[in-house]
Design brief:
- The chain is of the alpha/beta class.
- It has eight helices and seven strands.
- Strands 1-7-6-2-5-3-4 form a seven-stranded mixed sheet, with helices on both faces.
- α4 links the parallel β3 and β4.
Length: about 250
């Protein structure tokens, strides 16, 4: 069985590379020829690319709760983070214009980082206060332009046995859900946009960053009801309520 999983993982990496290269000329055309309109189209059509990738990985989404997501106005999606697969899963759920806040190292990756940078995604150096403020301002501007924001408020992940990856926020291996950073909740209240919590229940089982093995099967997701930022007195109150709701569903799973 382990041999078959290794073969399947190699297939997934190879097909991802080939799909990326096939779409690269079209992506470059959207980003550099069509300008702002092209960059918006690039983000939206990745909904279809993400669903194709999951299909080729042999994965089927099992989504409960507020889905399909019908919200039309900008919002902030709060997503728990445990796997490199998380970004693909989230992209496969949301059709509207979105931008990601991602760690700056990702923007240095070959090809992928180049597209992320030039398509208008938002980098942040988590250890740098000035970079965090710049990221906050860019997210605020994106919301004003009609984009929704994807945030992983834990600030990263720390799976059991993970001793090598950086850990700027002191993440614990034993926590089912890390404490949330408060910036995204402050942004929600300042811009008065709602929050949509998304819980990825087994993404780390399907693709572990420790073994780098990809296992086909069901991707279990729960989308919680919209949370109005206007209903809370402080960003911290909104933070704690969002964390509590997401943790409850994780424990049930």
């Amino acid at each position: 069985m382990q041999f078959l999983i290794i073969i399947w993982s190699v297939w997934c990496f190879v097909i991802t590379f080939f799909l990326f290269m096939i779409l690269l000329p079209f992506n470059l055309f959207l980003i550099f020829v069509l300008g702002e309109i092209g960059r918006k189209l690039f983000v939206q059509y990745n909904f279809y690319v993400a669903n194709i990738l999951l299909f080729l990985f042999g994965m089927v989404k099992d989504v409960k709760g507020y889905y399909p997501i019908h919200i039309k106005t900008p919002c902030i999606y709060m997503v728990n983070h445990r796997s490199y697969l998380d970004v693909i899963i989230v992209a496969s759920l949301i059709r509207q214009k979105i931008k990601y806040l991602g760690k700056a190292e990702v923007f240095d990756w070959p090809l992928f980082g180049f597209l992320a940078k030039h398509s208008g995604q938002i980098p942040v150096q988590r250890e740098n206060k000035e970079s965090r403020q710049k990221g906050y301002n860019l997210m605020k501007k994106a919301i004003e332009e009609g984009f929704s924001i994807i945030l992983f408020p834990e600030g990263g992940w720390k799976n059991r046995g993970d001793k090598k990856s950086s850990n700027p926020y002191g993440l614990s291996e034993d926590k089912l859900l890390q404490d949330f950073r408060n910036g995204g909740f402050r942004l929600a209240m300042e811009t008065q946009v709602p929050i949509v919590p998304i819980i990825l229940l087994n993404a780390q089982i399907r693709f572990s960053d420790l073994t780098m093995r990809i296992i086909p099967g069901k991707i279990k997701v729960h989308v919680l009801d919209i949370m109005s930022s206007k209903a809370f007195k402080t960003p911290l109150d909104l933070n704690k309520e969002c964390h509590k709701s997401m943790l409850t569903h994780l424990k049930e799973f």
